[in-house]
Specification:
Length: 529
């Protein structure tokens, strides 16, 4: 890379740069509605759009800003090619269900394209093929099997040998007629339409508790209650479990993305490698110029090495493969995977037909989120769908789900125990500016972060969801839980559930009178212990 040309990389998604979505006031008083939707990403907005259009009275609430969660951090590939899945689905579910999975994703893609046309949405919608590629012999064999599955399921695709960029592949497999777009520009238009349809929207409004009686009462963080007939949880991790045990049926992974202006020619198409280390590549545009989005480095949340390491590795890959003229943006995303890789979309439990959930989209939230909007609006409107059974959260397939269930919960149990036994020697006074780490405080494990002004924040590292020990994420300055993916800011406030309570704040223990520790006050720190 030419370092003289390198610019400051902005630590945020590319998408927010050139697109602002309308903002909305927080809820300030009790309210009543037919349908309450919790979560303002692509799933919540699509569900709200379809139901409002069908004449339902809809309220949508979002804990933060609209489209600032997983949807705002996506690679925004609109595709049914979700990695190597069709051969696996054929074996696990049979050809009818495997084919339905593909059809459901393509229906979602066509629905999105129809909206883009209907409202003339200028969202950089570009039809392109999606491609998987292998770099090993074993990977090539897997792609051959996947191709056979495509043939069996009538999925248009081609098996081929070499990539249009500087990387040796042993095989590649395309899926025809997929798309990429700018997700915020698309959703900006849908939000405008929601306003026209009379949908009520509140930002900075967190749903904290649910009481199901004759109607459903949802408590919000600012002490208001929304009463509704149907409740839809589109909050990435369901904010309400409703005895569905979702926390034990999914695991969370983080992955990393960067936007660069490359030195070499930009390849057409969207690429994903199937061998380790996995890499994803797609074209986008910035200031009217074509750029590349490059991603990968997934790891279970809270189990990465130093998280800034992942960006460095991606940058090395980008420099080697495409050359870097300018680094533009970098950001990370969190995704949830279900036991059988098929999202959970439908009634929260078999018996509860009033509360719906949509979660577990793996990395494929654009089609799955849209599909979830279609399926849930069908449920609410009492319409049958071909796809309900495949995606219902109460499906139960023992193979390979049970094996994964056991190993994932073993993983959780290990983190519950390991974190508690870990010996730590670091102390808050040894922190450098911008550094966060696990320290020992009064003989216990604690988490401390020192900001650029020298202010130290200290938290109890026990996750408020179910008691695992959170780990420091140096790239995002957050405390991440390895068990079910909750994330907390450096000061302990909740960034992502399932936890809905902040980490216990210990900062006040650093100094008498609640003052935080600043540079040059090490002696007092020592004394306060
Ligand atoms: Fe479940 Fe932390 S997210 S214990």
């Amino acid at each position: 890379m030419n370092h003289e040309q390198q610019e400051w990389t902005r630590p945020e998604p590319l998408w927010r740069e050139d697109c602002k979505i309308d903002s909305f006031e927080p809820l300030r008083e009790d309210a009543s509605t037919e349908v309450l939707i919790v979560g303002g990403g692509i799933t919540g907005i699509t569900t709200a759009y379809l139901l409002a259009k069908a004449g339902k009275q809809v309220t949508l609430i979002e804990a933060d800003q609209l489209v600032n969660g997983t949807t705002g951090h996506t690679t925004a590939k609109v595709t049914a090619q979700h990695g190597l899945i069709y051969n696996e689905f054929l074996n696990h579910f049979g050809d009818e269900q495997a084919s339905l999975y593909y059809q459901a994703q393509m229906n979602a893609l066509h629905f999105m394209k129809d909206l883009v046309d209907q409202y003339s949405i200028d969202c950089e919608w570009t039809e392109e093929d999606a491609h998987l590629f292998a770099t090993t012999k074993q990977g090539a064999l897997k792609l051959e099997k996947e191709h056979k599955a495509y043939l069996q399921l009538d999925i248009p695709g081609t098996l081929y040998e070499s990539l249009p960029f500087d990387m040796e592949a042993t095989k590649a497999l395309s899926m025809k007629n997929q798309a990429r777009f700018h997700p915020l520009k698309y959703l900006q238009a849908l939000v405008k339409e929601l306003k026209n349809l009379g949908c009520t929207i509140h930002e900075q409004t967190t749903a904290t508790d649910v009481k199901e009686e004759d109607r459903i009462h949802v408590k919000t963080g600012n002490d208001c209650t929304i009463t509704c007939d149907k409740l839809v949880s589109c909050s990435h991790f369901p904010f309400y479990d409703g005895k569905g045990f979702y926390f034990s049926r999914m695991y969370a992974e983080r992955s990393y993305l960067m936007a660069i202006e490359p030195e070499k020619e930009i390849p057409e198409g969207m690429y994903l490698s199937i061998d380790e280390p996995k890499r994803t590549v797609r074209t986008a545009s910035y200031n009217g110029k074509p750029i590349l989005l490059i991603g990968g480095e997934s790891h279970k949340t809270g189990q990465g090495v130093d998280t800034s390491f992942h960006y460095r590795v991606l940058e090395e890959f980008a420099a080697r493969t495409f050359g870097i003229k300018k680094k533009l943006f970098q950001w990370s995303a969190q995704d949830l995977t279900t036991l059988d890789k098929v999202p959970y979309i439908g009634p929260i439990t078999r018996r509860n037909q009033n509360v719906f959930v949509a979660t577990g989209f793996r990395k494929w939230g654009m089609t799955n989120g849209t599909l979830a909007g279609q399926l849930i609006s069908d449920y609410v409107l009492g319409e049958q769908s071909l796809f309900h059974e495949l995606f219902t959260p109460s499906r139960f397939k023992t193979d390979p789900s049970m094996k994964q269930f056991l190993s994932q919960n073993f993983d959780v149990a290990t983190h519950l125990i390991d974190g508690k036994l870990e010996l730590v020697a670091d102390r808050p006074e040894r922190l450098h500016k911008g550094e966060g780490k696990i320290i020992q405080w009064k003989g216990e494990r604690a988490g401390a972060f020192k900001d650029e002004e020298g202010q130290v924040y200290m938290v109890d590292t026990t996750c408020t969801h179910m008691g695992c020990e959170v780990e420091w994420n140096g790239a995002e300055h957050s405390w991440d839980c390895p068990c079910h993916g909750s994330r907390f800011s450096y000061d302990g406030s909740v960034m992502e559930g399932p936890a809905d309570q902040p980490l216990k704040d210990l900062s006040h223990e650093l100094m008498p009178l609640g003052e935080h520790k600043r540079e040059g006050q090490e002696d007092q720190l020592e004394e306060s212990e």
